[in-house]
Write a structure and sequence with these properties.
189 residues, outer membrane lipoprotein receptor (LolB), chain A, 13-stranded antiparallel beta sheet, globular
Length: 189
């Protein structure tokens, strides 16, 4: 992980003025589908999502049977009940063991967090010419870089948290080492 704002300069005012959240973050529905391929869990699941005053929760259900994954993310911890057993990570999350629960916590925390000038710590151009912004991490740990589309919307998040490196693109595809998942919002969501 790279320390500080290495390679990032102060953000330009025009960039901050056109900055917009990833379109899928505009409305995370209470129910959607989540396709997962990982060593811990694989398949297509019905997801139930709720946001509360102190965090958010995500539950996954297969086509047949009861709940197989239960995630609760609060201000300073990530707790999950999974088929492989319970998982607990407490702040600082950089020291947390890598897990599907931590990936999902980071992805949904970023989708829920406002994308505004107050979170921007720096700006740079990527090798391909895209504008990249260093953001204050929604979970308070790690490193988050948002790649912007030409219109200023976030096109991709790159999240580093401890030993995890996760990308989320605007199509809902999430990738990390040993993990591939896809968030699919239902039209009737």
């Amino acid at each position: 992980m790279t320390a500080g704002c290495q390679g990032f300069a102060p953000p330009a005012e025009p960039t901050l003025q056109r900055l917009r959240p990833m379109p899928m973050a505009a409305r995370i529905p209470p129910r959607f589908e989540l396709e997962i391929e990982s060593p811990q869990l694989s398949g297509v699941f019905d997801a139930v999502f709720a946001v509360g005053a102190h965090g958010f929760a995500l539950q996954l259900f297969p086509d047949i049977g009861g709940k197989v994954f239960d995630l609760a993310v609060g201000r300073d911890r990530v707790v999950a009940d999974t088929p492989a057993g319970p998982y607990l990570a407490e702040a600082p999350l950089d020291a947390a063991p890598p897990h599907l629960a931590l990936v999902l916590a980071a992805v949904f925390a970023e989708l829920l967090a406002p994308v505004d000038a107050a979170r921007v710590r720096g700006e740079r151009r990527s090798a391909s010419g895209d504008s990249e912004l260093l953001l204050a991490p929604a979970l308070g740990s790690g490193r988050v870089v948002a790649t912007l589309a030409d219109d200023g919307t976030v096109a991709r998040y790159t999240i580093e948290l401890g030993w995890l490196a996760v990308t989320l693109d605007a199509t809902g595809r999430v990738q990390a080492r040993g993990l591939d998942l896809h968030l699919r919002w239902r039209q009737d969501g």
